[in-house]
Structures are given as structure tokens and as C-alpha cells.
Amino acid sequence: MWKRLVHKIPKKSFRKYKRLASQNCQSSFNSSCNCNSASIEVETTSNRASFATNYGRSNIGIEPLVPFKDVVTDCEKMTLFISKLSLCCTIFDFTNASINASEKELKRVILLELIEFVSSHSSSYSEQAILAVCKMCSMNLFRDFPPYISTCIPTPIDDDDEDHEPRYDPSWPHLQLVYDLLLKFVTSSSLETRLAKKYIDYTFLLRLFELFDSGDPRERECLKILLHKIYGKFTIHRSFIRKNISYIFYDYMLDIEKHNGITELLEILGSVIAGFALPLKQEFKVILCRVLIPMHKPKSLGVYSQQLTYCITQYIEKEPKLASRVISGMLKFWPKTSSRKEVMFLNELEEILEVIQMAEFQKVMIPLFQRIGFCIKSCSFQVAERAMVLWNNDKIVNLVEENRHIILPIVFPALEHNLQCHWNQVVLNLTYDVRKTFQKMDSSLFNTCHSHYEKEQEKLTLAIRKQGEGGGEHIENCINLRPIIKGTVLLLTPLTTSFLC
């Protein structure tokens, strides 16, 4: 069909058609909402008219190559709109640019025409037109991804993310126009939600969610904007969208830990959380406790750490009482072997402490600063440094000062341990600064903690010395108890060894 359409167009006319359309081929999706592409001149000829009579009119109703400016009534424009959409349902292979080149170019120009028509159309869309748009977008966008695309995101947290390049889809220039058309159609004031919800339904949305696993970041960015617009316009689908985002996160945490669109989905969820009405519903709190907090567990946290932190802080700003629950959850999932992940936790912890209220802080300050104490004396200089940088935040210093009688005895041993044992000079300098801060807060309390620490160290030294002496005597006793036959010491059986020693 496409070849016959292209051959029917005079070469001179098609060159003009192609030249005028190329002026609009570089439109980006990010500026799609303000797209003012120029009119596309399409020259009609008697040959094309006769072709429309023989082929186009018998199948669609109006020849799809007729420009919109040549149609007068709204009814005819809508019929032509459906005709062009039906023509664009044809799929081409973009892996080889030399195959069907003219047909691909003609389809691109028709898509640009459709985008311009949707941008300027003012009357309501008919149900047939909505169906045609959804059908065309479904056939062009909904597809299965090869395994090498759907698994391109690295899972190890210590891997360098920059080493894993995204997989760019060769058909993206064509797909971008389809996304642009769908976005303008969804956001159009001429689209009635009452009619559109029949076709932009749960099945359509599920297929959109599957596309978030695309290896092309440009496509995921388009999907993020599109799904957010659908969430805003179709209120009936909001609960379904939230649940499906949660299901993708469940699957990611509990099973595969491989999904390319986690970052974009968290960005959508962050904007959704920002629009939650107060007081928060129980459904919204479940998302925090069962989805967002456990999302700290996967090894690939570094891929989406910033977006996750934004979602968490949005919840706390909406309802400050949730702060203690969040910190308790973070302490539960605190990393034990990944220093890089610990730094991410400390970064997020600082943002939470900036918005926490005193009553919620006091609920978790003991286990929290016990963990911070372990971070202060960490062998990793990055973790130790990041932990002590918390004292550069005035809000955190105020929280600590109000509760210094509890916090200083917890972290003081870690500070003294750094002065005696830590190998990094930057960490030592920061340790001195934190000690000075505590000393200025309450010098008498500082001196009390220092004297108590010295006494504890003396007790520990004596205990170790006694244990060492007792251990030597115990070893000698074990040697004396070994039986000797003809000058040879017999080895004891494992049972006898464990009993004697």
C-alpha cells in the first residue's frame, strides 16, 4: 500500500513535500506542549486524486494524502484525521535505513501533519477518532523488548554506572512523533474523558507500564511525562496507576532487581505524593511503609537514590509523624558491607533530619546515633567523613544540643577511637572539629564523658591483660594433660579436645 501511494505522487511534488516537512523534523518531546510546527504543504494532483478514487476512498473514506487545509467542514476533517491515522498503522523496520526509505519519510510527514492538527483542533473528538488514535499508538508503541535491552541496568551497587551505556532504539525519531501525538491528544481540551476512558483503559495502561522497561532513556522520559498527564486527567485511573507502580517495585525488590524504569516511576510517584491531600489516607501510608522504605534494600540503590529520597521527604513534609517510622525502617535495612551505600543512607538521613520535629527525633535518637557512632569510626574514610559532616548542618546541631545528655555519651567513644586509631588525616581533622563542637555545647558534660571513657578503657585493658594471662595458663594445662607414649605426644580426638580445652 505504501509503495503504491509513494509511486502515485509526482517526484517534483514529493520533493517539495519532503523539503517542507524536514523543517519540522527535529521537534523534541520535552517542548511538545509548546510545539508550533509550521504548516506542511502537500500538493495534490490529478494522479493522486484518481488514486484516491481507486484505492483510498474505497477503504477509508478520504484519501489520506489530502492536506487538512483542503478540507472545509469539521466532519470531513475528522474523517481525514481517521484516514491518516489508519495509514500510520503500518509498521516499518528501522534497523535498516535503506529499506522502505521513501515510505518511512512519507509516514513521518503524515505524523507531523497529525501533530499539527491535534495542536490546533478545537471541536470535540468523535468516539471513532479516539479509537483510531489509540489503535495507531498501540500498533506503533506496544512491542516486546529483546533481553539485552530489558537487562541493561547493572545490579551490583559498586559497579560504575557510567560504564553501562543505554541502548538507543534506531526507530526513536519515528517513535518520538507517535509519543508527541499521543501526548497532545491526551492533554487536548477537545478530548472528553467520558469517551476516552473506554479506550485509554486498564489494558492500555498496562501496556504503557511495560514500555518503562525500555533501554532507551529518551523513551522512558516520554513515558514519564505521558503517564503523569494521564494521571492528572483521568481521575478514575489514579488508584490503578498507583497500584501498578507499587507492583513493579514489589517485583523489583523481591524477584528480579532488574528494571530500566525505576527512576522514572519514582519521579512520577514523587509528583503524585506532592499532590496528596491531608490528612493522608491509609492507602498512601501503605505505599510508604511497604514500598518506599523497603526500596532501600536492593543493591542497585545508587540508580534511584535521589528520587527515592525525594519521595520519602515529601511524605514527612505532608505528615511529620512519619519521620520516626522512616528512620526506623532505614536502620533496619542499613547496609553492612557496602560503604558506598552507607554514604547514600547518610545523605538521605541528613535530608530527613532537616525536616523532622523534635518529638519524632527523640523517639529514634538512641538507635540512630548508635548507628552514626559506628559510621564515625568506620574504616572507610568516606563513611566516617560523611557521618561527621552531619555536624555542619545547623538544624542537626540544634537537635543534638537539645538532647546532648543522651547523644554525647553515645558518640564520644567513637570520636576518641578515631583520635587514637584512624588512619585518614581528613577524618582526624573532622573528629577534632566535632569534639570542639561538643565541648562548646557543654564543657562539664564533655569532661564527664572523657573521664568515664578513660575509666572504661582502664577496665578494658585490665580485663584483656587478665584474659591473656589466664589464656596462657590454660594452654599450658592443656599441653600437660596430653598423654605421652615413648616420648611421642598423642593427638587428642576432636571430642576430647573440645572437652579439655
What does this structure look like?
The protein is an all-alpha fold and 501 residues long. The chain is 66% helix and 1% strand. It is built from 24 helices and 2 strands. A two-stranded antiparallel ribbon has the order 1-2.
At a glance:
The protein has helices at about 1-10, 10-20, 45-60, 75-85, 100-120, 125-140, 145-150, 170-185, 195, 200-210, 215-235, 240-255, 260-275, 280-290, 305-320, 325-330, 340-355, 360-375, 380-390, 395-400, 405-420, 425-440, 445-480, 495-500, and strands at about 485, 490.
Primary descriptors:
501 residues; mainly alpha; 24 helices
Fold topology:
Layout: H1 2-8, H2 11-21, H3 46-59, H4 74-87, H5 101-120, H6 127-141, H7 147-150, H8 172-187, H9 193-196, H10 202-211, H11 217-233, H12 238-256, H13 262-274, H14 282-292, H15 305-318, H16 323-332, H17 339-355, H18 358-376, H19 381-389, H20 394-402, H21 404-421, H22 425-441, H23 443-480, E1 484-485, E2 488-489, H24 494-500
Antiparallel strand pairs: 1-2
Helix pairs in contact: 4-5, 4-6, 5-8, 6-8, 8-11, 10-11, 10-12, 11-13, 12-13, 13-15, 15-17, 16-18, 17-19, 18-19, 18-21, 19-22, 20-21, 21-22, 21-23, 22-23
> What's the average pLDDT?
82
Rough outline: elongated
What's the story with the biggest beta sheet?
Answer: 2 strands, antiparallel
Strand content: under 5%
Strand order of the largest sheet: 1-2
Structural class: mainly alpha
* Count of individual beta strands: 2
Give the C-alpha Rg: 34 Å
**pLDDT < 50 stretches:** 5-60, 148-163, 489-501
- Helical percent range? 55-70%
Q: How many helix segments?
A: 24
